[in-house]
Amino acid sequence: MSRIQQTFLHFPGKLYSRLVFVEGDQLSLQIQDTPGGIQAQDHLSHMTDSLSKCMQWAEGFLLVYSITDYDSYQSIRPLYQHIRKVHPDSKVPVVIVGNKGDLLHARQVQTHDGIQLANELGSLFLEISTSENYEDVCDVFQHLCKEVSKLHSLNGERRRASIIPRPRSPNMQDLKRRFKQALSSKVKAPSTLG
Ligand SMILES: Nc1nc2c(ncn2[C@@H]2O[C@H](COP(=O)(O)OP(=O)(O)OP(=O)(O)O)[C@@H](O)[C@H]2O)c(=O)[nH]1
User: Exposure check for the chain: N or C terminus, fewer CB within 10 A?
Assistant: First the structure.
């Protein structure tokens, strides 16, 4: 059993595994569904260790609120800040999702509130209805996977860039000297042979 699975075993939520294709690449996803109900007034230091451990393993986050529940919207910012604390050195992708977009009559959170928060936090934002449109859910995961892949390839390139030394521009003086040397050795060659 992998360490990631061991961590998830102690967590009171469901763990799903899926193989998905993102831009032609097959990815293996481990999705931890965390229990809801974390309210803004809850102090995040009370967040269980296991949730923080899950956060450490995760390479991307979906923060979902309900557009019919203003409290759930207010819990997004502290959750986001906690993610940044757990991942201080990396810009791990976070997508903010306003769910229950079909319940317009019960709306408590306006679309522009979601957009504004996401802009402020530098996250992608989508408003969806999981019960009305299954494709919305796929879109959300596709967006997150793309962001995670982007970060991976960026980090890979950075690492490669730091390993491979930049080629130095040719030193013209040195080239001329070596060219002269090569010429004179060719000219001298017959006398040394003879
Ligand atoms: N109308 C509507 N109802 C939804 C939608 N998404 C979820 N629900 C309902 O909201 C309730 C909670 O849904 P869950 O999927 O259990 O939500 P959750 O965030 O996992 O809840 P926790 O188990 O507390 O974490 C259920 O009754 C769902 O049917 C949606 O897009 N539209």
Answer: C
Q: Which long-range contacts (CB under 8 A, 24 or more apart) does 153-160 make?
A: 155/90
Q: Is 122 in the pocket of ligand 1 (CB under 6 A)?
A: no
* C-alpha radius of gyration, the chain, whole number: 27
Contact 53, 47 (CB under 8 A): no
Residue whose CB lies within 8 A of the most ligand 1 atoms, among 38, 64, 99, for a mutation test: 99
Q: How far does residue 100's CA lie from ligand 1's centre (Å)?
A: 8
Distances (CA, A) of 1 to 4, 69, 96, 112, 156: 8, 38, 31, 44, 27
Banded model confidence at residue 143, pLDDT cuts 50, 70, 90: very high
ipTM: 0.94
Q: Is any atom of ligand 1 closer than 6 Å to the C-beta of 50? A: no
